[in-house]
Design a protein that fits this description.
This protein is an alpha/beta fold. Helices cover about 30% and strands about 25% of the residues.
Length: about 280
């Protein structure tokens, strides 16, 4: 099967039009006409992931975070910033990136995948996609709610530390921090990965908590002062569920002879200083 045919299947639910204007998505390395019998899905393209793709016989890497984001002046093996790109080119691999368009995607997007993993019922997008891409209400022909993040309602009011420990256990999160603004939360905004854009919408949505990957210090302080509890579980842990979601979707759409593999490489740069500890303040 050609690279372009696999891409077309993924773009049915994560069309490039959903990407933010500043983003860089699409085929970043390789030939759209190349034949593929194995593709590897990952959050990040690192040298270890490129080596894994080669060892597992993959011709295509599908990544969430862009391998090429800013203009490059050089691609060199001795430059850590471009070594993975050099390795991918030299190995003849194709690299396709679905970033903010995958964040906003229904069914298999980062927020949808995180909610499904945590068994949280999605009420609506936290940040609906721009007008003209989807109709009012955030619904689309792509199969569900389209937009960044989700608003969810817990079955009952829950203590922030309890919610944090429960979510951290399910996600195997290596770190978890809580800035509690109250004794219990029920209406929660969910934003995997970097949540800097989520604070304003969360305030307007009247949520009691923001469950996210990471939030800057002053933003967390602002949220707490505004009465919103922040539960930070790590960028990698909150986005990792999308890898399995993309694999499952593609395998259902592609012929049986095309194998879709989830990367076994842990690309999270952070390691726990005190495993299992929930930090609260």
């Amino acid at each position: 099967m050609r690279v372009s045919e696999i891409i077309s299947k993924l773009e049915l639910v994560a069309p490039p039009q959903l990407a933010e204007q500043w983003d860089n998505v699409g085929l970043q390395v390789g030939d759209a006409g190349a034949e593929v019998d194995t593709c590897l899905v990952t959050l990040d393209v690192t040298c270890a992931v490129v080596a894994e793709a080669c060892s597992r016989g993959a011709q295509l890497i599908i990544a969430h975070h862009p391998l090429i984001f800013e203009p490059l002046r050089e691609v060199r093996a001795d430059n850590p910033a471009t070594r993975a790109l050099w390795d991918a080119i030299r190995a003849g691999l194709c690299v396709y990136v679905a970033h903010t368009n995958l964040d906003a995607a229904p069914r298999i997007g980062t927020a949808a995948a995180l909610c499904r993993t945590l068994e949280l019922k999605e009420l609506e997008p936290l940040i609906p996609s721009q007008e003209g891409i989807t109709p009012a209400g955030g619904k689309s022909e792509y199969g569900g709610m389209v937009g960044l993040g989700r608003i969810v309602q817990l079955d009952r009011p829950t203590a922030p530390a309890t919610l944090a420990r429960w979510a951290a256990d399910i996600l195997a999160a290596e770190r978890c921090r809580v800035a509690a603004a109250g004794p219990a939360v029920q209406r929660v905004a969910v934003m995997p990965g970097a949540a800097g854009s989520a604070l304003g919408p969360a305030l307007r949505a009247g949520v009691e908590a923001l469950l996210c990957g990471e939030l800057q210090y002053h933003s967390a302080m602002h949220a707490k002062q505004a009465g919103i509890t922040v539960i930070e579980l790590g960028h990698y842990a909150t986005e990792r569920p999308v890898v399995e979601a993309v694999c499952s979707y593609l395998q259902s759409q592609l012929p049986q002879q095309v194998q879709v593999l989830a990367s076994a490489v842990r690309t999270d740069p952070y390691q726990p200083a005190d495993e299992g500890r929930v930090q609260t303040q």
